[in-house]
Amino acid sequence: MLETTLFTGAALGLSAWLSPADPFGLASQFPWLWIVPALLALRYGTVDGVLGTCLLLAAWFALPWLTGVPRPPQFPQPYFLGGLVLVLVCGQFADIWNERYARLRAANSYLDERLAALTRSHYLLRLSHERIEQELLVRPVTLRDLLADLRSIESAASVVPASALARCDALLRVLSQSCELEDAAIHRVIDARLESKPLASTGEPLPLVADDALLALAEQSGELAHVKSGEGTMHEGSYLVCAPIVAAGGERLGLLVVRSMPFFALNLENLRLVTVLLGYYADGLRQQQIVQPVLARRPDCPPDFALELMRLHRLRLSANVVSTLVAFTFEQSESGDSVFEQVRRMRRSLDLLWVIGTPGRHVIVMLLPLSGAPALEGFLLRIENGLRQQLQTDFADSRVGVHTVMLDETPAERTLDELLTRCKVSSHPELAGLPA
């Protein structure tokens, strides 16, 4: 408004100086004075244009007092009306484009903010990828590979008394590679007493510090303890991590103590992996006791299948790692036997198979470790695609029944029993399970 007043006053002064007898240019061929309100309307909008028009109108009535020149007797109505129309047109044009400009500026401001946020996210993602690459270089194995390694350890452990914590040196090697342990040792528990001499160690020799506060906390709680265990407590002592080796029944078999490990490796995910691997190993040492609940309901169940089922159920409870049971039912016929053999051959390396023969039917029960809903869907799709390629059939055409269930908080033996009941397999079938 200040600019409108100043520019209009300056235009009036210049016109009065150039043409004192006719400052408004009534007698000229073009009303040059109206250029100023029109430009103001184009720049700022209708309101400023109308304000400039009002100033010109006020100057018309104040002309004798300002310049001493007498005002014409007749009011120049067409002069002011035409100027007002010109100003209104220019102001309307400016209002429309100013509004569009404001919208575009707001949109661009939003896009700038989004671009800045995406740039920050991209930068953090790049850092995250670099961190993942570093971890994969140090620990290029998955949980599936680690479980396969622990299974290989069991083959030697099965011929050694469980109290000896058989092949614990191989277990410690797996833990060191996967969880980045530097100085660590495994001690055996005999008659509820922790032996001071380690059965296996890596890095520098570690004499047991029996009065360490972290060790006492782990023995008292029966769970993994680390330097930040508890709320706001920093345990200062000889060890960073103390993890009991506990079987599913609660029996303590040994203790893992860690004195040194990389800073970034001391995180909850890595410590949870340590707990999972120790529990998996301990369950393998106590397989005779662990498989009893399954064998009590299904005496014909293969012991290795029952053991893996109980282990994976423990993983589901302790680490929320989902595994799945799948049962396929086949009719005994020439085409059904072909489909049965094809499905039987398509299991994955870590999967366990239990084949049950019943009158007129075959049943295949597959245990899919570490496989949730997406992995199960992909597994079934792969089998069906294989049937289409090899035998030009699918589950529906071959009348193959597919029953699935995921391990959850329900006891594993009940889950297996309910799945076999859906497949119409009795608790004591007449025919024993066929070898897988």
From the coordinates shown, what is the CATH architecture of the largest domain?
A: 2-Layer Sandwich
Q: What is the average per-residue confidence, as pLDDT, rounded to a whole number?
A: 82
CATH topology of the largest domain: Beta-Lactamase
**SS content category:** alpha+beta
- Rounded to the nearest angstrom, the radius of gyration is 43 Å
Describe it:
By secondary structure, the chain is of the alpha+beta class. The protein has 3 domains: 2-101; 143-288, GAF domain (Beta-Lactamase), CATH 3.30.450.40; 294-434, Alpha-Beta Plaits (2-Layer Sandwich). It has 16 helices and 11 strands. It has helices at 2-18, 35-44, 46-61, 63-67, 77-138, 143-157, 168-179, 213-221, 268-285, 287-290, 292-297, 303-319, 334-345, 373-391, 395-398, 412-422; strands at 183-190, 193-194, 200-202, 225-226, 241-246, 252-260, 324-331, 352-358, 361-368, 401-406, 433-434. Strands 1, 2, 3, 4, 5 and 6 form a 6-stranded antiparallel β-sheet that branches. It has a 5-stranded antiparallel β-sheet with strand order 10-7-9-8-11, with helices on both faces. A hairpin with a 5-residue loop joins β5 and β6 (252-260). The longest helix has 62 residues, at 77-138. The protein is elongated and about 125 Å long.
